[in-house]
């Protein structure tokens, strides 16, 4: 994993809230921010794939692993919906 730095301007009140939460969770502010960003980019069951590129036909191409994860999530969702309608 490559680590890079990022400079961000945020309101002082938000920074204060992050600091309180980081201390509560025994995290550095950096660790708290990374944890929250990761959580916001992850669904409850599966990672939401990032669109890699569009091909000439305008369709989006995804890695096979992302396609399989999406297939599994959609299959589970369809089964849940079927249970609810039966």
In the sheet with the most strands, the strands line up as 1-2
Distance between the termini: 46 Å
- The radius of gyration computed from the alpha-carbon positions, rounded to a whole number of angstroms, is 19 Å
How are helices and strands ordered from N to C?
Answer: HHEEH
Number of strands: 2
**What's the number of domains?**
2
Form type: extended
Keywords:
single chain; 86 residues; 2 domains; extended; Arc_rbn_hlx_hlx; Arc_DNA-bd_dom; sequence-specific DNA binding; DNA-binding
In short:
GO terms for molecular function: sequence-specific DNA binding. This protein is mainly alpha-helical. It is built from three helices and two strands; from the N terminus they run H-H-E-E-H.
Description:
It contains three helices and two strands; from the N terminus they run ααββα. By secondary structure, the protein is mostly helical. It starts with 11 loop residues before the first helix and ends with a helix. It folds into two domains: 12-41; 53-85. It is extended. Helix 1 crosses helix 2 (29-40). A hairpin with a 5-residue loop joins strand 1 (53-54) and strand 2. The longest helix is centred in the last third of the chain and has 22 residues, at 64-85. It has helices at residues 12-24, 29-40, 64-85, and strands spanning 53-54, 60-61. The mean pLDDT is 81.
